[in-house]
Write a structure and sequence with these properties.
Chain lengths: 609, 175, 248
């Protein structure tokens, strides 16, 4: 007991003695765990979203509609066709207009039973199922309309209360909604010279009412369409079933959709956003690792001396290791807890936009296994950070560990020689960089990763802009994908900013003495501050260039390969865009590092000497 | 100069008086300059009379004392052995200065701090001389070692003066 | 040295430096008047905490006085901007520190040329000057060594060479022998003696009486004030023998 207290006391004292370092370490582990949490949550949200929705909603294998040509009797016959094990419907469907948040949209209104259906029972993400006077809106459509439960909407001139939001596997989520009304629909942007037949629905959404409400809204019996959901004995035979049963119905084919074709429509967009999410998670992971390496690396070297000290006053190697471990565990546990909390809270920002899009049933929650994994990673960092100095401390003699300067700077002769030819701030900057080559490499990598990510985001953004007028994505789809891109950009840039500040601050702390000495020898505060900032900006410039080429180029090529995409569809950023990107990166890094560098340069000389 | 020192310097081999003086000069360096040649011969004569030294006269110029060759008698050998084993050490006489300060303060004769400052000036001059002499010596010579000893002692004395100064400053503040 | 023999290079009038406020006010430097003449070596001695290091920091503009006047070559420096002070340190004053403060990753010659580079000299001129200085200070064979490969005395020699890099008006030395053993101290003392003969103005603060004894003038510092001046120049006593009991 006494030993444990001793270990804790020693650990706490050291953390308190170096508060800035401890805080930076905490932030870095926090960023890493937060990113990991986000990545895990989002991965679940994006993986097989249609499958999970299909399971949750008892999704149909085949959806058949009257489409205005077949009649209700034909649909009813399907319910007893061979191979059908279960069915729901036929349900009445009408075309209409919905007015919500002051905007008018086309909509298909499906009349449902208040009872739970055995096939295609939409899964509620909010609120409750249909009741008279209450409307349930498809989740993606709802987010596009910007309505939620308890809002009121106008349907066919009547006011309905939104009682729930739901997802279904019977049709792709808005705006990919398939057409089940007899008047017909058109998706995507409409060329101005095209005259649509009257009543045609443009990008319709989907809402559910009770059957009674639908019937009361219908202007005439003739305008009513019907839809039936079928469950087959063998879902893989859906295509064959359609071939066998769509047959001849008075010269027209009965419109039927298999679950495979719904899947293809629904996930065309989902797969794109899933790829975006996964790439983002990878980029963030790399950034977090870079900032952790800077901090843990710095601390590990500092610890060598401390190990020597503890041994000199009689600490056994076991005690020494315990103190170091306790110190890192304290930081890691706090950081992991905070990282998990922030990650879990921010995950909906990412998944909400994609939830409706991918048709997933709700925001995936933080499971115990995810918590365990994130915590394990944080603790793993702690253990690795402890192991190296502990082993080194046990192996080195106490004397040499004590004599070891905090972390002897490296000598890079050619850089020193080169720097003599440069103006003073650059001369000092190059030497600051040369003292810690590993940190420079990490700085370069971190900026390269960020810029590579931005490069890809730029390509995707241009791609989306070009698509918005074409068939592939509708405007609403583009908006959704843009939202995903935006969220990732914000997180990516925030983490990169934290990284830049962490690296600069570590450099400033590390160079306290050298900076003071340079000033004692006649360097002005401005020159020293400029040197500190330049020591970050020069690697940033290199990182930005590498991030554009080959970083971004390779990353994009990798994405194309993974997704089997057609790189010809994408327009690569132009040279001006790339130069602007590089300059903006350098400018941003300069701005971010200016404050810590300025503070470092202003420190009274006599304090550090 | 102690008789035993002269005796011990002859223990190596029988020597002429001038050889002895050269040996002393070598060992003392600039300090040997101050050595009085007459005093060495007075001491040699005294030792001879005491039966600790025997004199072999060289063939020519028998009367000139610096032509004499001195050698140790068995008694002389004995005396040198005893002297080597002795642990006597020059006593630093600090009591006098200490009492000077107390007397000056109690009788109001002078400010003890002024006395300390004056004394320090004197010691610093001596230190400076010793330091100069030491700097002029080749670094591993016999004389350099001796001069280092002098410098270190003076430093110790100066440090004691510092302690005196602190102590008397403190006393003055209290009163 | 171009100055007339009695022109003060460094002049302090009522120089004060205070830390803290109210009850906790500490007068580190309390009304110091001092004239340092060109080519002179001045030592300031005192116990630790008497304010002598602070005084030296004021002289070099590493710290700002709370009051009083400070003139370098008849030019007020107590009210200069940080930038102007830095420029002054490049050319007019330079420091030698107790713990040498060499850059560990730079070789001896690179350390020595650093101030010249900071002052904007060409790399070639800076290197030539550095090599010449190391040569003069007997370190020619050590120019390419890292500080870690040098002895304490050699490191301090490198630091002195660095201080001379821009031919400063005044070299300020803070306990230059504080970290050295007896033999290395002697080495540094010889070096200062040579600088003195060459005409370099030196201000040394120390609590080592040996280094103070080599100065032309020695001041004692107590509680932030200079209390006693000793002029150490002049004929030697010539009574060295008396020191070891060879004479009475």
């Amino acid at each position: 007991m006494g030993r444990i207290l001793l270990v804790l006391r020693l650990a706490l004292r050291d953390l308190r003695r170096r508060r800035t370092e401890a805080a930076l370490l905490l932030i870095a582990i926090l960023a890493a765990t937060m990113t990991l949490t986000l990545g895990l949550v989002v991965r679940d949200a994006a993986s097989d979203p249609y499958e999970s929705t299909r399971a949750a909603t008892k999704g149909p294998d085949v959806v058949a509609g009257t489409g205005g040509f077949a009649d209700l009797a034909d649909l009813e016959k399907l319910a007893t066709a061979s191979g059908v094990t279960e069915h729901s419907g036929p349900y009445p469907v009408i075309a209409g207009k919905i007015e919500a948040s002051g905007r008018m949209s086309d909509v298909q209104v499906e009349g449902r039973d208040t009872a739970i259906a055995s096939v295609d029972q939409p899964e509620l993400t909010q609120g409750s199922w249909v009741s008279d006077g209450g409307v349930v809106i498809e989740a993606a459509f709802a987010s596009s309309l910007d309505v939620s439960v308890t809002d009121s909407v106008m349907l066919g001139g009547r006011s309905f209360k939104v009682v729930g939001l739901a997802v279904t596997a019977a049709m792709p989520p808005y705006p990919g909604t398939s057409c089940i009304v007899s008047v017909g629909c058109v998706h995507g942007a409409i060329p101005t010279d095209l005259n649509l037949p009257p009543g045609f629905l443009h990008n319709p959404g989907l809402v559910w009412l009770t059957q009674a409400d639908v019937r009361s809204l219908a202007p005439a019996q003739g305008s009513m369409s019907y839809v039936i959901n079928l469950k087959l004995a063998d879902p893989d035979e859906a295509e064959a079933f359609v071939d066998a049963n769509s047959g001849d119905h008075g010269g027209t084919m009965m419109p039927m959709q298999t679950w495979q074709s719904i899947l293809a429509d629904a996930t065309e967009l989902a797969r794109d956003s899933q790829i975006l999410l996964l790439i983002g998670a990878w980029l963030l992971g790399l950034l977090a690792v870079a900032s952790l390496s800077v901090l843990v690396g710095g601390r590990m070297a500092d610890q060598t001396r401390r190990v020597g000290l503890l041994k000199a006053v009689g600490g056994t190697p076991g005690l020494v290791a315990a103190v170091l471990l306790a110190e890192y565990l304290l930081v890691a546990v706090v950081a992991a807890a905070a990282g998990l909390a922030i990650g879990a809270l921010t995950a909906p920002l990412l998944t909400e936009s994609s939830a409706g899009l991918v048709g997933s049933a709700g925001t995936p929650s933080l499971t115990w296994s995810k918590v365990a994994l994130v915590t394990a990673v944080a603790l793993g960092v702690a253990v690795v950070a402890t192991a190296v100095p502990a082993v080194r401390g046990a192996r080195f003699s106490t004397i040499s560990a004590l004599a070891d300067a905090a972390r002897p700077p490296r000598r890079t002769g050619w850089l020193v020689a080169l720097s003599t030819r440069l103006p003073v701030p650059l001369l000092l900057a190059l030497r600051v960089a040369a003292r810690r080559p590993r940190r420079v490499v990490l700085g370069v990598v971190s900026i390269a990763v960020t810029v590579g990510g931005i490069y890809v985001l730029l390509v995707l953004n241009t791609f989306l802009s070009e698509q918005s007028g074409l068939r592939a994505y509708s405007e609403a789809q583009v908006t959704v994908l843009r939202h995903v891109l935006l969220v990732w950009t914000v997180i990516l840039l925030s983490l990169a900013a934290v990284n830049a500040i962490v690296v600069t601050w570590a450099t400033v702390l590390d160079n306290r003495h050298a900076s003071a000495l340079a000033r004692a020898l006649g360097a002005t505060p401005l020159e020293v501050s400029a040197a500190m900032a330049a020591a970050q900006v020069l690697p940033a410039l290199l990182g930005a260039v590498l991030g554009v080429f080959p970083g971004g180029y390779l990353l994009f090529a990798a994405i194309i390969t993974i997704t089997d995409g057609d790189s010809n569809k994408a327009t690569l950023p132009g040279p001006w865009q790339l130069i602007t990107l590089i300059l903006a990166t350098v400018l941003a890094v300069a701005t971010l590092t200016a404050v810590p560098a300025h503070l470092g340069g202003r420190r009274p000389v006599t304090e550090a000497l | 100069m102690q008789q035993e020192v002269i005796l011990a310097m002859l223990a190596k081999e029988a020597s002429h008086g001038y050889e002895l003086r050269a040996r002393l000069r070598d060992a003392l360096g600039p300090l040997g300059e101050a050595m009085n040649a007459g005093q060495v011969y007075v001491t040699l004569t005294r030792l001879e009379k005491a039966g600790l030294l025997a004199v072999e006269r060289s063939a020519d110029d028998a009367d000139r004392s610096d032509r004499k060759v001195y050698t140790l008698t068995p008694n002389g050998q004995q005396r040198v052995t005893e002297w080597i084993a002795e642990v006597s050490w020059p006593k630093p006489d600090l009591a006098e200065f200490h009492l000077k300060l107390i007397a000056a303060a109690s009788a109001g004769l002078a400010d003890p701090l002024t006395i300390v400052d004056t004394q320090r000036r004197e010691l610093l001059r001596r230190l400076r001389d010793a330091q100069r002499a030491a700097m002029a010596e080749p670094s591993r010579s016999n004389a350099a070692l001796l001069l280092e000893g002098i410098v270190l002692r003076l430093q110790a004395d100066l440090r004691w003066l510092e302690a005196c100064e602190k102590n008397w400053t403190h006393r003055r503040r209290i009163s | 040295m171009s100055e007339a023999p009695d022109t003060p290079v460094l002049r302090a009038r009522g120089l004060r430096k205070e830390y803290g406020k109210g009850e906790g006010l500490i007068r580190a430097v309390d009304g110091v008047d001092l004239d340092v003449v060109a080519g002179e070596t001045v030592a300031i001695m005192g116990p630790s905490g008497c304010g002598k290091s602070t005084l030296l920091h004021l002289f070099g503009g590493l710290d700002r006085p709370s009051g009083g006047e400070l003139l370098l070559n008849d030019r007020r420096i107590d009210n200069l901007s940080e930038k102007a002070l830095a420029r002054m340190r490049r050319t007019d004053v330079s420091y030698v520190f107790q713990s040498f403060h060499l850059m560990d990753e730079l070789t001896a010659v690179e350390n020595v040329e650093l101030p010249a580079l900071l002052a904007g000299r060409s790399p070639r001129a800076a290197r030539r000057r550095a090599e010449q200085l190391l040569d003069q200070l007997g370190l020619a064979g050590r120019a390419r060594f890292l500080p870690s490969a040098l002895s304490g005395g050699q490191r301090q020699r490198v630091a002195v060479a660095r201080a001379l890099s821009n031919e400063p008006l005044v070299v300020l030395a803070d306990e230059p022998t504080g970290n050295l053993d007896s033999a290395a101290t002697l080495d540094v003392l010889r070096l200062f003696e040579e600088l003195h003969e060459y005409g370099q103005t030196l201000v040394i603060v120390t609590h080592d009486a040996r280094i103070a004894a080599t100065a032309d003038r020695m001041f004692s510092m107590r509680d932030g004030a200079l209390v006693d001046e000793t002029r150490l120049t002049g004929g030697t006593t010539g009574k060295l023998g008396a020191l070891v009991g060879l004479e009475d």
